[in-house]
Each structure stands twice: as structure tokens, then as C-alpha cells.
Design a protein that fits this description.
Number of domains: 2
Oligomer: single chain
Radius of gyration: 26 Å
Structural class: mainly alpha
Shape: globular
Order of helices and strands: HHHHHHHHHHHHH
Length: 358
């Protein structure tokens, strides 16, 4: 009887939870504008905090080697934001120009693929009805997306420029985060209830150990792979090397699936040039994966996550289904945080059970 009542209580709790969630979603027009304003205001702080988190270990290393802490902050700060600003100043116009050229050449690329489909259709006329129509529809969709690529990019840039003042604050916020890092830690320590302090420090330490090295290493590896791929594509005379290098660099952060996703645009563009360029592109992709898998990642990233590949693949599939490419990028870091949460939750509840008298 007691077990049955527990099930009834659990069912009632779930029904109440679903009802609250339903009401919350129905009231979305009320709270959505508030969430948007809060998110817009706090976004520069989140970005600045993330940048400070990435740069702080480098500053600590320089400080331990004898450099004055303030000077170390200024040096790393200027190198990071100076290099980032120079890259944006020089790189963004060149990338936009190549995207414009790619968008304008969409009919030519589509025509080349239609010619190949025509030859393919003559040799596969016995194939089932509908196969060739699907191929033609795919080419038409590809042409449409390439033609709209420039307008989409400019639309995203326009949105970014709408928040240019907020993004301009990021370097200043990041500087104060770096300068007052220890003070911020003390403030968080005193604001945290005493009973949670020890466990909270251990929890954040484990997340930092599991995730910090991985994120910093992945950013360095992705930047290296993107730069090397753009350089190699430029050397062999491939069209749009900066665009392709940027795509390969960004998607390389996705384990296992990233190299495939990044290689697809390069393969499509290479196929519109010649079969020789396709083979050259495959060789370049193979070289990049060899560098990333056997040299860069083991040397820079290492095995900081300590997770089985099956769990990583499962997280990637779930992230891709929920959030597309963005979901694929954040899936592994979220999995690492969930892993740490589960370990600490198990430790917490096991301690509580030990404290309960028999």
C-alpha cells in the first residue's frame, strides 16, 4: 500500500510539473521580451568572462615566472585583442569578398553539376523513377542557397553592428575581470553559503580540470587547422580559400563529425573546377586530419575529457538533433559538465546516506 501511494505522489508531481511548464510556455509573450533584454545586456559580460577564463592561466604562468601581474595582464590583453582586432580588420573584408564571388558564381557551379547529372542520367536511365528528379531538386536548392549566401551573411553582419556598442564594451569588461580576478573569487566565496563553499570549490575545480584545458586546446587547434587549410588551398589555387579555411576551422571543433562537415563545401567547390582539384582537396583534407589527429590534438588538447567515445557520439547526435551545428559544437562541453554534476551528486547523496543512522 505504501509503495502504491508513493507512485500516486510521483504521478501527481509529474502532472503538476507538466501543467506548470504548459502555463509557462503559454505566457511566453509576457516573459520573452524581458528575457531578450536581460540576455542582450548580459551577453557582453558572458563573453568577457569567457575570454578572461581563457587568458587567466597564461597570465598566472607569466606571473609565476617573475613578471609583474599588472604587466602580464597588459601584455596578454594587448596581444589577444590586438591580434583579434587585426584579424577582423584584415580578414573580414577578404572573407566577405570571397563570399560575394561565390554567391555570384552560383549559376556557373549549378550548371556544371547539371551537366554531370545529364551525363549520369544517360548512363543510369534504368534507375527507379524519381531518383533523377531528386538530384535536380538538390542542385536547384544548392544554387538557391549559394545565391542567397551573400544576403544572409550581410544580414548577420547587420545584426552584429546593431549591437556594436555592447560588443565594444567587451575588451573593457574583460580587462577588469582579469585585473580583479582574485577579488571576484573572494566576493563569490563570501556570497556563497558556508555549507556549500567546500563542495562548490571542488565542483568548480573539477569542471575547470575537465573542461578548461579542452576548450583552450580546441580553440588553438581549430585556429591552426583553419589557417593551415586556408594556406594550402591558396597554394594549390583553390577558389575561396579563406571561406573554406574558416568553415574547416570552425567545424573542426566538433569531434568525429567535424572534419566531414568541413570537407563537404570544399569538395563541392572542387568538383565544380575539375577532377584533379577534387583529388588535391582530398589529399589536403587527409593531411589536415593527420596533423589534427596525430600531432596537434594529442599535443595541445590531450585526453582532458576522460570520456568514452560512445558517450561523445551520443552527445553529438543529441546536440545535432536539438540545435544543429551550434548544438554539435556545445554538445561535448555540456556532456563534460553533466558528467561532473553526476559525480558530485552521487558523492553528495552517498555522504547523506552514510550520515543517516541505521
Amino acid at each position: 500500500m505504501e509503495i502504491r501511494m508513493k507512485w500516486f505522489y510521483l504521478l501527481g508531481f509529474l502532472l503538476l510539473l507538466f501543467f506548470v511548464i504548459y502555463i509557462f510556455l503559454k505566457l511566453q509573450p509576457v516573459w520573452q521580451p524581458v528575457i531578450n533584454v536581460v540576455f542582450t545586456v548580459l551577453l557582453p559580460f558572458f563573453i568577457a568572462a569567457f575570454i578572461s577564463y581563457l587568458l587567466h592561466p597564461v597570465i598566472e604562468i607569466l606571473h609565476e615566472k617573475g613578471m609583474n601581474r599588472g604587466l602580464a595582464i597588459v601584455v596578454i590583453y594587448m596581444l589577444f585583442f590586438g591580434g583579434l582586432g587585426f584579424g577582423i580588420y584584415k580578414g573580414i573584408p577578404a572573407i566577405i569578398e570571397q563570399i560575394r564571388e561565390l554567391s555570384e558564381s552560383a549559376p556557373k557551379v549549378a550548371e556544371q553539376y547539371r551537366h554531370w547529372v545529364y551525363v549520369f542520367e544517360n548512363k543510369t536511365s534504368h534507375w527507379p523513377f524519381g531518383v533523377h528528379e531528386r538530384m535536380e531538386d538538390s542542385i536547384t536548392m544548392l544554387e538557391s542557397r549559394l545565391e542567397n549566401l551573400m544576403s544572409n551573411v550581410m544580414g548577420y553582419l547587420t545584426r552584429i553592428f546593431d549591437f556594436v556598442l555592447l560588443f565594444a564594451l567587451i575588451p573593457f569588461i574583460a580587462f577588469y575581470f582579469l585585473k580583479d580576478f582574485d577579488s571576484i573569487k573572494k566576493m563569490v566565496w563570501y556570497l556563497t553559503p558556508k555549507k556549500w563553499r567546500k563542495q562548490g570549490v571542488a565542483f568548480l575545480g573539477d569542471i575547470n580540470e575537465s573542461l578548461g584545458g579542452y576548450i583552450r586546446g580546441q580553440i588553438i587547434v581549430c585556429a591552426a587547422i583553419g589557417s593551415i587549410s586556408a594556406l594550402l588551398f591558396w597554394i594549390v589555387g583553390m577558389d575561396y580559400p579563406l571561406v573554406l579555411g574558416t568553415i574547416i576551422g570552425i567545424t573542426n571543433i566538433i569531434p568525429y563529425f567535424g572534419p566531414i562537415i568541413g570537407a563537404v563545401p570544399a569538395g563541392i567547390i572542387a568538383a565544380s573546377v575539375s577532377f584533379k582539384m577534387v583529388m588535391i582537396t582530398l589529399v589536403i583534407v587527409f593531411i589536415l586530419q593527420f596533423l589534427e589527429g596525430n600531432i596537434l590534438s594529442p599535443l595541445i588538447v590531450g585526453k582532458s575529457l576522460h570520456m568514452h567515445p560512445l558517450f561523445i557520439i551520443l552527445a553529438l547526435l543529441a546536440g545535432g538533433e536539438i540545435g544543429g551545428v551550434a548544438g554539435l559544437i556545445v554538445a561535448v562541453p555540456i556532456l563534460a559538465v553533466i558528467k561532473v554534476c553526476m559525480i558530485h551528486a552521487r558523492s553528495h547523496f552517498s555522504k547523506k546516506e552514510e550520515m543517516v543512522p541505521d
